[in-house]
Structures are given as C-alpha cells and as structure tokens.
Backbone:
C-alpha cells in the first residue's frame, strides 16, 4: 500500500496557492507515512510564458528551505516531511550549460532529499501554450518533446527521478490534433460511438496517442535512466485530468520493467490538498499487475524501497 506522495506543489509554485499545512493535514487524514514537497524551480522560464502564467516558476530558495525545515520540526513525531523540488530541464544550446551549472550549485547548497527532473519548456516556449504546436501535427510536436527529454537525460545528472514522461499529450492543440487526423493517424471512437470533439484539448491522449509510435525515443530515455541509476516517476495527474491513464502510459511502464528498470517513484502532482494521492490505489494495482513489488522514496538523495 502506498503511504508516500513524492510530487506535491504548494504556494511556492507559480501554479499553486495551497498552504503546506493543508497538504500535511490531508496526508495525516489519509494515514500517510511521509510526503515530499517538490515545488517548481524552472530556471530561465520563457518571458512571454511567464506573462501568460503570472509568474516565472521560481522560488526564493532560502525562504523555501526555512519553511520546510520548520514544518519538518513541527511534525517531527507525526509524519516525515522531505525536502524536494521539481527542476525544469532545458536542452536549448544557449541555456543547457547555464542550467546544469546553476542547478548543481543550488542542490549543493541545501540538503535536498529528492529532485524531480522534468521537461516543461523547449524551443524557449512552454508547450502548454498553443504557439508551440503551430504548423505541427501532434506527432511532430511530441517527437520534438521526446527528443528534448532524451538529450536532457544525457546532459543532466542532478535529478533523481524523471517526471511525468508523456504528460505533453494533455496539451496537444486542436490544430495539431486535426492535422494528425487529416494525415491518417488512427483515431478511436468515443464511448458513445462517435468521433471525438477536436476542440477538446485532451482528446489526443484519449483517442490517438500510442506510445509505440515513439518507442525509438522512449527506449533510449529509459535505458539511460537505468544506466544512470535514475528513477522513473508514475504521475497520477493524467487520471485527474481525465485522460484515463497515469503518466507514463501503461505500455511505457511495462517496457521500463522489460528493460530492467526497477526504480519507480509515485506522485500525484497535486497543486491542491484535496488532490494528494489522487488515484494511488489504481497506480498500485497497475504496478503490481506489471510485476513491480516496490515503489521508492528518497531520503538524502538515496532510494529506499517500500512494498506496494
């Protein structure tokens, strides 16, 4: 049974307003053993995207550290609270070396327990915004995204677990999805038997996304993770957003195990207390059915196995 959530966001993240205490109290209500705050630290977040998002996805590291340390002390005999963050990995040539250097300096300064490495931006844009998809099919946009992750896994050694692989299927634009359909990409029918509504932003993931189409990239990514001793995250936000699957999709979790991968971390990616441990029962059942026996938490950057 899963008793830890290792991907959580509080008001230190631009896209959350939640107080840490609310998340902790929710974890206590659920009988959890520990949680890890992993607020966003995306260096050099694109300016135009910052304007749209209302923030640059960075936080004051000293303030963050002091806050988590106080909470660790306050709840020291009740629940384990771990210090983490989610860093944004960049593959742009003018940013990569600066990001590697500055993340390493930041991580060396504080006693982090756990670091998630995620690719949120490429080509100096957050693909959440439709401009990234202009003139592209969904497949072209996703292949460019996987290419960036593959490069980032090679270039960054400062993270413990790769965050939400394949989450970008949530943000494929209407135009990119339509271009894929017109190009002959197979499309499943809706539960009612009709064709999906192309204006529904997440329909691509539900009706057209097949991980096998990107296996050349994802095999390379997962082999590198295994060789480097890095973990792969199962992130249940896809279930929360109505995709019908967690990230990464079942086929990729199965393939990771076939390749010899064992290090799995589990996170809800909650930005509100009520979403803590979202559908963890489904995640646990999925992993057990695929032959996994353990999920891993990190303490002082070292993995610790826990029975599913």
Residues:
């Amino acid at each position: 049974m899963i008793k830890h959530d290792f991907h959580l966001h509080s008001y230190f993240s631009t896209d959350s307003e939640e107080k840490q205490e609310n998340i902790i109290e929710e974890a206590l209500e659920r009988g959890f053993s520990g949680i890890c705050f992993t607020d966003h630290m995306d260096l050099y977040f694109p300016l135009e995207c910052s304007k749209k998002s209302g923030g640059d996805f960075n936080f004051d590291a000293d303030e963050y550290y002091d806050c988590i340390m106080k909470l660790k002390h306050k709840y020291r005999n009740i629940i384990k609270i771990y210090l983490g963050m989610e860093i944004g990995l960049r593959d742009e040539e003018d940013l990569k070396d600066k990001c590697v250097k500055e993340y390493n300096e930041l991580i060396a300064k504080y006693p982090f327990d756990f670091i998630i490495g995620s690719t949120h931006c490429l080509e100096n844009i957050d693909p959440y915004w439709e401009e990234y998809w202009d003139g592209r099919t969904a497949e072209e946009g996703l292949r460019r995204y996987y290419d960036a992750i593959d490069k980032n896994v090679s270039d960054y050694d400062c993270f413990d677990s790769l965050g939400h692989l394949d989450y970008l299927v949530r943000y494929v634009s209407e135009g990119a999805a339509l271009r894929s359909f017109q190009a002959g990409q197979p499309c499943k029918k809706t539960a009612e038997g009709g064709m999906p509504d192309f204006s529904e932003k997440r329909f691509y993931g539900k009706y057209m996304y097949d991980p096998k189409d990107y296996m050349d990239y994802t095999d390379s990514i997962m082999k590198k993770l295994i060789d480097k001793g890095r973990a792969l995250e199962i992130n249940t936000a896809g279930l929360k957003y109505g995709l019908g699957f967690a990230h990464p999709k079942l086929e990729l979790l199965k393939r990771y195990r076939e390749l010899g991968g064992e290090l799995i971390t589990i996170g809800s990616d909650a930005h509100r207390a009520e979403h803590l441990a979202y559908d963890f029962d489904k995640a646990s059942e999925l992993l057990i059915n695929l032959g996994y026996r353990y999920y891993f938490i990190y303490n002082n950057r070292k993995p610790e196995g826990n029975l599913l």
Remarks:
- Strands lie at 4-8, 34-41, 80-88, 114-118, 161-162, 231-235, 264-267, 294-299, 302-307.
